[in-house]
Write a structure and sequence with these properties.
The protein is an alpha+beta fold and 122 residues long. It is 46% helix and 14% strand. Strands 2-1-3-4 form a four-stranded mixed beta sheet, with helices on one face. α3 links the parallel β1 and β2. The chain starts with a helix and ends in a 6-residue tail after the last helix.
Length: 122
């Protein structure tokens, strides 16, 4: 019994892996707020939006796999946290659209910010 207590204590100190939970009864607004809080990088996107595609490609080029929420046009007014798509969040903070992402990237602050929130290793 005593030998099992030490490993359990060590495991308890480690930060648990991020997991996304699904609650079918949860309103869309609450679900989106929770996803923004739980995920290091979130993009609210439209599958037909070329700027959304550019954002996803830029993040993939630096090694990030964001949580992407594809919103169809009919879902957007009721559920979208931001009126304009794409909308991106890093570490729960609104970055904005492609302009915000490109500003971070061109200033050299994107990769450090992604490391800070745990979206990049190393």
């Amino acid at each position: 019994m005593g030998t099992e207590a030490a490993p359990l204590g060590k495991r308890a100190k480690r930060r648990p892996a991020a997991t996304l939970s699904i609650d079918a009864g949860e309103p869309p607004e609450k679900r989106m707020e929770r996803l923004i809080e739980e995920s290091p990088v979130v993009i609210f996107s439209r599958s037909s939006c070329c700027m959304c595609h550019v954002m996803k490609r830029l993040l993939a080029s630096v090694g990030v796999h964001p949580t992407v929420i594809e919103l169809d046009e009919e879902e957007e007014p009721a559920a979208a946290p931001v009126a304009m798509m794409p909308a991106m969040f890093i570490g729960g903070e609104a970055i904005g659209g492609i302009e915000g992402l490109m500003a971070l990237h061109l200033s050299g602050r994107l990769v450090p910010r992604l490391r800070e929130v745990g979206a990049l290793c190393g």
